[in-house]
Every structure is written in structure tokens, then in C-alpha cells.
Amino acid sequence: MLKVFYHKNLGGWQKPEITPLENLVMHPAAKVLHYAVELFEGMKAYRGVDGKIRLFRPDMNMSRMNLTARRSGLPTFDGREYVNCMARLISIDQEWVPHTEAASLYIRPTLIGIDPTLGVASSDSALLYTILCPVGTYFKADTSGAVSLLADPKYTRAWPGGVGNRKMGSNYAPTINVQKEASKKGLQQVLWLYGDDHQLTEVGTMNIFMLHVNEQGEKELVTPPLDGLILPGITRDSILALGRQWGQFKVTERKFTMPEVIQLLEKGRLLELFGTGTACVVSPINRIHYLDQDYYIPTMDQEKPVFQKLCDTLTGIQYGKIKDHPWAVTID
Predict the structure, then answer these.
(1) CA atoms of 82 and 75, how far apart (whole Å)
(2) How many distinct helices (H) and strands (E) make up the chain?
(3) Chunked in runs of 10, what are the mean pLDDT values of the chain (332 residues)?
(4) Is the pTM of this model over 0.70?
(5) How far apart are CA 252 and CA 237, in angstroms?
(6) Cβ(127)–Cβ(109) under 8 Å?
(7) CA distance to 150, 167, 205, 257, 304, per residue, from 202 (Å)
(8) Please, are residues 331 and 54 in contact by the beta-carbon 8 Å criterion?
(9) Are 209 and 285 in contact (CB under 8 A)?
């Protein structure tokens, strides 16, 4: 594991160190334990078809992590230097990067407030650390490879002025019980809705995209805007960039609602729904349980689905099939 301590009274960030994985020791009054003064990121290292190990757009993870640190009253850091530190950690543990395209090495950078004082205030001491773990497929899908969702408007994940757009643990604990409810109904994930009009925001821990035929008869890929309710996903940003680069369909960032989804379904104009994120890359959606009714989404019925092309392109970059792509950072 990689560890860097921060102590304001010692001048700030201390010397980074790489140690064997070990338990953390902290005072029982540490701010992280009482006031959730913490945040994290999710990244992966991929062993390419050429044997080289790559990271995917790590600069964006570091930028997002620093934005969350500011929102949490925790110290910011030099993202480029920390990527170099993580690259060194991965090079030491490189045999843990799976020798297959069906798996990768998950990277979890974490920043916690460790001041041993009770009282809701910023922390003058912090610990920035990273641990690693090989992972395979993240989400359990049905036999078709798609996921089903519970969309219950009585639950809200985020709200305007909140921290739904920042990657902190306090966003995730309240979702666990709702996920259990979805599982009891035989559904795999939760579709988070917001507002009286039931806007689609996120699906599980993923951003969401909808491909449909718009009023002008053209194909349009839509995803919710970065208005503070959703996480600014790295995979989300990459898909928007690819879609605009390809020019095969219109790409739009706007709000859309469950009534709109249902209307598009009824008119035969809804083509695909899918979630996106570091863990799953692209995850197709085939069913939504909403207001006691099941709505079947034809994502898996498309002849040449866009979600599959996006997934193939992104994994092609991550595993080195698409050579020398600027999003792929090779670890020496």
C-alpha cells in the first residue's frame, strides 16, 4: 500500500512511503470515524495485449479527488505526483495485475481526516493512501448480460446544493438498504430518480445514458447534465467525447424523466439504456420496475447496439488494442 500523511503543524504533506498492506491505527476520536471526513476514488490498471500495464485517464481521477477534498475540508495534493507514486506501487505489485482481458487491478486512493478531536471542523491532519485488489466483473447481470432496475421515487440519492457530484463515502451508505430492497424484488440495481417529474440521475453507482429517436427522426444519445446531482464520471466523459467524435448520432446533456422514457417506449423510439462507470465500463439495461409496473427496454434487441461499440472501444484503449491512445497512460 501507499501512504502519505498530512500534518498542518509540520508544514503539510510528509514523505510518501510504500509498505506491506497493513491495518491502520488511529485515535478513536479521529474525524473520519465520527463525521465521515473522507473521500475516495476508483481506478484500474489493465494488462494490455502487449503485456504493458496501463492506467485510464488518471489525471481526471486526481482532479475529481481534489475537488472532493476541497468540499470536505481536507487538504488538496499534487495529482500528477500522486499518479507517479501509484505507478511505483503498481510496478512493485505488478504480478497482481491479471493476465487477462476479463479482469483488472482495482486501485482505491482514499483520503481521510485523522485529527483526534471531537467537534465538527476541518481536519489539520490527514492520511492519503492507496490499496489494490484484482477484480473481475463488478455487476451481476442476467443471462443476457443486461441488468434490471428498481426505480422508486420515494428514495433520493442526491439533491441540489448537496454532494452528489463528489465521491465521498457518505453518499454511499444510505443507498445500501435500497439496494437490498431491489435484490429482494429480483432486481439487480437501483435507478435513482429526483424531483416531482422523476428525473433519471444515476443507476447504482453508474452514470446513465439513453439512446433514442428524437422528434426530428434522428438518433440521439442523452445523459443527465453535470448540475450537481450526479458524479462527473470519467467513463461518462469519455463516452460523450467518443460519441461526438464519431458523429453517427446526436449527443446531448439534458434532463430526462421516467414519463419521457415510457412515452418513447410506447412509440417504439427508445433504443437503448445503459449505465457507465469504472467498475462496469458499460452495462446494458433491459428492465425497469417503476410504480409497480415492469417496463422492458429493448437494449439487447438492437442489431448493432451502440453500448457494445462504446464498450469495445473503451476496453480496446484500456487493454492496448487501440495503440498509443492519449487516454491510456503506460506504467514503465
Answers:
(1) 14
(2) 7, 18
(3) 98 98 97 97 97 98 98 97 98 97 96 96 97 84 82 96 96 96 96 98 96 97 97 98 98 98 98 95 97 97 97 97 97 90
(4) yes
(5) 12
(6) no
(7) 12, 13, 7, 12, 25
(8) yes
(9) no
